[in-house]
Amino acid sequence: MFFLWSKAFSWGQTGHRITGEIAEKYLTPKARKNIRKLIGDQSLAIVSTWMDEIKSDPRYNHTHDWHWVTIPDGQTYEQTEKNPKGDVIEAIDRLGNVLKDRSQTDSARRDALMMLVHLVGDIHQPLHVGRGDDRGGNDIRVRWFGQNSNLHRVWDSDMIDSYQLSYTEYTDAIYRKYQHQAHQWISTDPRVWAYESMQPRDEIYAFDRDKSLGYLYHYKMRDLYELRLMQAGVRIAALLNSLLG
Ligand SMILES: [Zn+2]
């Protein structure tokens, strides 16, 4: 399928696939069985990017704003002005209700499942919880190792892809690094995940005025984005276990 690379993409394909691959490790047998009924033998890693692929299909135009949310500094989600087209927090709540409702059609529940795998990933990408003044860093033009990029893209894919690891190789590295802490992260509340994404804002925006990013920025941020990928995987599983387990 051809699809347009929207300006506001999300964890690139590698990042999303890592979250799906990690989630597979934490599913209960019952949740796994119910997932297989909806998506057959496809892995969560493979379906994790479907919500970006459908961005070029006009039938899904109404989903474009579900990938992110704006929460300015010092505000809670409840205090923010809500986007009438939806946001990632309300979408996770709403799609969760569709997925667990057995009176819904299989096709509605399958779409909800594939979207949830994607959106739980997105909400863990810190720049998908935006400050409200720069479209989640999309408006901050930077140089990444001398090439034109923007801050959002550095976080979605430039840093992750610079290792040139496959998603399974990178999953293995992240899982080894963080598996012993995974039990601390079992949570199913998207508000909690969004507030975690807001916390490192100052660090993420702390770079020189020339906005030339490379090794130094990458090494400073690496633990953080790898942690967020791991947490996203653990939470995809926690959510699916609670809805389908
Ligand atoms: Zn997305």
Automatic annotation (TrEMBL):
Query: InterPro entries attached here?
Result: PLipase_C/P1_nuclease_dom_sf, S1/P1nuclease
Q: Name one GO molecular function term.
A: metal ion binding
Keywords attached to this Swiss-Prot or TrEMBL record, sorted alphabetically, are: Disulfide bond, Endonuclease, Glycoprotein, Hydrolase, Metal-binding, Nuclease
Q: Which Gene3D superfamilies match?
A: P1 Nuclease
Q: What biological-process terms (Gene Ontology) are attached?
A: DNA catabolic process
The record's PANTHER family line, in alphabetical order, gives: ENDONUCLEASE 4
Query: What is this protein's record name?
Result: Endonuclease
Q: Which organism is it from?
A: Thermaurantimonas aggregans
